[in-house]
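Technical note accompanying the year-one report. For the benefit of new consortium partners, we illustrate the data format agreed upon in the data management plan: each record pairs a sequence with a structure-token string. No post-processing was applied to the example shown here.
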Amino acid sequence: MPTWGWFIVALVLIDAAVLAAWFLARKNPRKNPAATAQLMLAGLDSSARDEIYRLVGEKKKIHAIKLFRERTGAGLTEAKDIVESVGSGNLLPTLGAYRAGNGLDSGAWEDIVPKLRSLKAEGKAITAIKLLRARTDLPLREAKEAVDRL
């Protein structure tokens, strides 16, 4: 193959790599960490909290991490850090423990989570997702996953 042929092959490969990087970057939108933490903690009801405390007390941290992740959708590292902090005597974070930079304080969260749960129970999941996105600026996929976890 002549030299110019190899040059064209190299250009095609570089273009493919640039396009792949662009598509991957588009799939990972920015997340609002305070909103994500609030929604994550909304999945922890009192029975789940009690069960996590019991498992940590029985030195079953792996089971506690698994339960925390199932209920909240948290990542492994975050769940491990929280369960280890419980093991060292700290309490599980509560729903009002975070404050968002966009003005959503604990009062706003205490209002929205029951409203989201009632909308979901009434079969109005789309309305719940719209409400959540309006209050938190979450991407559609993350808002849907959060409402599904409630």
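Partners are asked to follow this layout when depositing records. The radius of gyration is 21 Å.
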